[in-house]
Amino acid sequence: MFNKAALVVSALLSVAIAQQVGTQEAERHPSLTIQQCSAGGSCTTQTRSVVLDSNWRWLHTTSGYTNCYTGNTWNTSLCSSPSTCASNCALDGAKYSETYGITTSGNALTLKFVTSSQQKNIGSRVYLLENESSYQMFSLKNQEFTFDVDVSKLPCGLNGALYFVEMDKDGGMGKYSTNKAGAKYGTGYCDAQCPHDIKFINGEANILGWTASPNDTNAGTGQYGACCSEMDIWEANSISSAYTPHVCTSTGLTRCQGTDCGDGDQRYESICDKDGCDFNSWRQGDQSFYGPGKTVNTNSKFTVVTQFITTDGTANGALKEIRRIYVQNGKVIQNSYSTFDGLTQYNSISDEFCNAQKNLFDDNHSFEERGGMRKMGDVFSKGMVLVLSLWDDHAVNMLWLDSDYPTDADPSKPGISRGPCSTDSGKPEDVEANSPDATVIYSNIKYGPLNSTYRAS
C-alpha cells in the first residue's frame, strides 16, 4: 500500500491488542469456505474461518471490566510499562456482526464500513484461519489466487483491500511467552509500512512514546513499528484499483524504531519498501479500463485472478512476474497495458516493468534495492497470511489510490494521476458521514496451479 503507515483505522472507543485472554465474550470465528484447485480445474472445498484483528478488540483488566485503553489513550495505572500492560490486560472475544459489521455466508465475506451498536465502529481487518489457533499460510509461486469481489458500494476515499503479509502462523504466540492470545484472537499483524498504531508488538504493549492521533479519536502511534513484506493483491474502490508487491530486507515480523521504520523524511531509509511497485490501470494511462461502466465494470461483481510466474515454471524457481486477469459475465479480460512511451509493452509486474515505471515516474527504486521480485518470491516460499479489510485513510484521504497525488504536483505528469476522484475527496469525516453503509463483498476464493481457478463461459 502506498502509505499504510497512515492506515490508522478507527475502531471501537475501547479497543486494543491484548496478549492475555478475556472471558467476557466467547470468541466464535465466522465460517468461510474456500477452494483448492488442481490442474484441469477440479476444485476441493475447504471449510475455514476468519478472525478479527486484535487491534479492534476490547482490552480490559484481567480481573474485571476496567479498560486498559480508551479512545486513543492508555490507562497508565494498568499499563505503566510494556510488560506490565501485557500481564494486566486481557483481549476479549468479538461480536462480529453486531459490533463490527462482519458477516459470512458460504463462500462470501461481507465487511460493512460503519456499524453502530452500543458504540460506533469504523472499518475492519480480518485474517483467514486454517484452524482455531493457526492462520492459513499461502505459498503461491507458480500458482494463482482468485476471488470474486463487489466494490459497487465503495466510493472515493475507501479501500477494500485483500492482501498477504509475512505474519507468523500462530500470531507470534510461540515466540513470545507473554502472548497468550495468538492467532485465535488476531495477533501479530505487520506490513511494509511498519505501522506504529499496532498496540502490542512481540508480546509487549507499544506504549512507549504513545501519541494520540490528532484527527482520529480512536487511534495513536507508539515508539515501535511492525515491519514485514506484503503483497497487495487488491486495493480498490469502485473508482480505482491497484496491485502492488512490497518487500523488506528483514525476515518475518520485525519490530523497528526510528530510521529502520522509515519515519518522516527517512521513508527511503526503512528496512521495507513502502512505495512498492504498483500497477494501477488509470495511473498507467488507461482511463477507460476500470470503473463504473468501463471494461471492468465496477457496477457489478467480477473475478480477480493473480498469477505468480517463476523463471523455471516450478514452485522452486525465482518469481519473475505477477500477472492480472479479470473475468466478468463469463468473459476473460486481460489486464490493460500502459499507454506511456517506454511502458507500452507492460500489462503485468516484473523487475523490468518496475524499473521502467520508476524511471518514467521519477520514483524511488526502493523495491529493486530491497530485493525486488526474487525477494517477494522468497517470502511466499515461507508462506504468507491472507488479510481482508475495509478502511479509510486519516493521513492522505486515499488520494494515492484514486486521485492526483502528491496534490502539489502537475497531474499531467505521468504517474501523478491515479484516478478521477477530486483532491478534496476522501476525508474520513466526510466518507463516514456520507457513506456509512458502504460495503465490500469478497467471495469464491480459490487457489491452485496456473489457469486452474477460472474459466470463460
From TrEMBL:
Keywords: Carbohydrate metabolism, Cellulose degradation, Glycosidase, Hydrolase, Polysaccharide degradation, Signal
Pfam families referenced in this protein's UniProt entry, alphabetically: Glyco_hydro_7 (PF00840)
GO molecular function: cellulose 1,4-beta-cellobiosidase activity
Top EC class of this enzyme: hydrolase
Signal peptide bounds: 1-18
Region (Disordered): 409-437
Catalytic activity: Hydrolysis of (1->4)-beta-D-glucosidic linkages in cellulose and cellotetraose, releasing cellobiose from the non-reducing ends of the chains
EC number(s) reported in the record: 3.2.1.-
Keyword Ribosomal protein: no
GO biological process terms on file: cellulose catabolic process
InterPro entries in the record: ConA-like_dom_sf, Glyco_hydro_7, Glyco_hydro_7_sf
Gene3D superfamilies to which the protein is assigned, alphabetical: Glycoside hydrolase, family 7, domain
Taxonomy, superkingdom: Eukaryota
Family note: Belongs to the glycosyl hydrolase 7 (cellulase C) family.
Protein name: Glucanase
Lineage, opening ranks: Eukaryota, Fungi, Dikarya, Basidiomycota, Agaricomycotina
Gene transcribed to yield this protein: cel7B
